[in-house]
């Protein structure tokens, strides 16, 4: 029986890795294209670009409720639903968007699926891992997904540079990739919970995890929105540049994610998130003041380096998931707590881009990244409060007393 269980877990882990391949391919197609699509097709301003993040990120804020509505399903089946909604949004953006209003509608549809899938990716990965190898397993999943996105970036670069590809075709291919991931998820055997799972979960014990998500949400949205916008508006870079940067960052990320997973297991989440925060301060200053630090080509290369470094540092979010895994009262707390974390992070990330756009317009883009550097310092202070051993000891003491 135990042998069959182990074989099933290995099979499901392989299928989940394969789903990660297709999700990575979709990401490599969609991520380097979306901002240029908005700029090239609709020529929107900085304030409009920042304001667009509110409806785009609203499903992330609501993810705890959408997850709650589907909590009667196992995690793998919720992920399947998320993938189907995500692919519908991609097909809509590619094939059914004659006006900007329709782009917004399909973008929201895509966002619902994307944000619903987000916490489940970590939760399912943790459930398929041995306790001592959670960081390693998440690192492997991240590395495979990152490797697959290289192909997507290459298709964007070759397609726009030599084959006269359209954004419509790129988004359609991305949608087909997500459907392929859905087939893999459908073939996985769902894990039945032995405990009745809660639709909504908020515990005082997880306050530091929630606070880390607030800071991650603010930091994430500054870079997702205004990092590419600096390259587009200040340095006038096309979609092919983002594809090349994606390729470089992705190839570097294959090794980086695998090493990061091992580093989390060996050094702990506190050390990893502290280093991430320090590096982010440097990235922010390079983004904001590259033209003051170096003239001409040196400035653009500093921004290129910042873009790639930030892309790599996003992987450090797995340290927040492994930290939560070490302090949860029950494995069944993982998905609802990760979902609550996504909701909390999006409460911030919905509003940050709009105000960032106003700051850019009134004071200059440099001040957007000065504020981001301040957020990175707050993240560093929060990381220093992580004490997994103390929490674990308190949990054991409480259990013994009970």
Automatic annotation (TrEMBL):
Protein's UniProt keywords contain Transmembrane: yes
Q: What is this protein called?
A: Major facilitator superfamily MFS_1
Q: Which organism is it from?
A: Desulfotomaculum nigrificans (strain DSM 14880 / VKM B-2319 / CO-1-SRB) (Desulfotomaculum carboxydivorans)
The alphabetized UniProt keywords are: Membrane, Transmembrane, Transmembrane helix
Instruction: Output the Gene Ontology terms for molecular function.
Output: transmembrane transporter activity
Q: Which residues cross the membrane?
A: 12-30, 58-73, 169-188, 208-230, 242-260, 337-359, 365-384
InterPro entries linked to this entry: MFS (IPR011701), MFS_trans_sf (IPR036259), Sugar_transport-like (IPR052528)
Query: Does this entry carry the keyword Transmembrane?
Result: yes
State the annotated membrane topology for this chain.
Answer: Multi-pass membrane protein
For this UniProt entry, what is the primary localization, expressed as one broad class? Answer: membrane
Identify the SUPFAM superfamilies for this entry: MFS general substrate transporter
Location within or outside the cell: Cell membrane
Q: Origin, by domain of life?
A: Bacteria
The record's Gene Ontology cellular component field reads: plasma membrane
């Amino acid at each position: 029986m135990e042998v069959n269980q182990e074989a099933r877990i290995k099979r499901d882990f392989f299928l989940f890795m394969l789903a990660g391949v297709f999700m990575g391919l979709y990401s490599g197609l969609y991520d380097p294209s979306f901002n240029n699509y908005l700029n090239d097709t609709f020529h929107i301003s900085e304030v409009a670009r920042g304001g667009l993040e509110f409806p785009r990120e609203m499903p992330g804020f609501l993810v705890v409720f959408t997850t709650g509505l589907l909590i009667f399903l196992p995690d793998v089946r919720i992920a399947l639903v998320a993938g189907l909604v995500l692919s519908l949004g991609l097909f809509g953006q590619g094939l059914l968007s004659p006006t900007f209003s329709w782009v917004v509608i399909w973008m929201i549809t895509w966002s619902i699926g994307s944000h619903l899938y987000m916490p489940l990716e970590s939760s399912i990965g943790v459930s398929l891992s041995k306790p001592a190898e959670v960081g390693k397993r998440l690192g492997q999943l991240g590395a495979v997904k990152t490797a697959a996105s290289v192909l997507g970036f290459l298709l964007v670069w070759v397609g726009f540079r030599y084959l006269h590809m359209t954004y419509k075709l790129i988004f359609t291919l991305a949608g087909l990739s997500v459907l392929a991931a859905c087939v893999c998820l459908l073939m996985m055997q769902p894990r039945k919970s032995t405990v009745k799972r809660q639709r909504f979960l908020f515990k005082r014990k997880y306050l530091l995890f929630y606070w880390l998500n607030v800071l991650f949400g603010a930091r994430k949205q500054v870079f997702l929105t205004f990092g590419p916008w600096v390259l587009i508006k200040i340095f006038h870079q096309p979609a092919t540049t983002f594809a090349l940067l994606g390729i470089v960052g992705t190839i570097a990320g294959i090794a980086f994610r695998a090493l990061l997973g091992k580093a989390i297991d060996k050094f702990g989440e506190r050390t990893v998130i502290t280093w991430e925060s320090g590096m982010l301060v440097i990235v922010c200053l390079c983004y904001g003041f590259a033209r003051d630090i170096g003239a001409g080509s040196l400035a653009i290369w500093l921004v290129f380096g910042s873009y790639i470094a930030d892309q790599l540092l996003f992987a450090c979010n797995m340290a927040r998931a492994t930290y939560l895994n070490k302090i949860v009262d029950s494995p069944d707390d993982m998905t609802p707590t990760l979902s609550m974390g996504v909701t909390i992070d999006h409460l911030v990330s919905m509003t940050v881009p709009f105000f960032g756009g106003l700051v850019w317009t009134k004071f200059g883009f440099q001040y957007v990244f000065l504020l981001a550097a301040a957020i990175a310092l707050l993240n560093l202070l929060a990381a220093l409060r992580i004490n997994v051993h103390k929490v674990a000891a308190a949990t054991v003491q409480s259990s013994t007393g009970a």
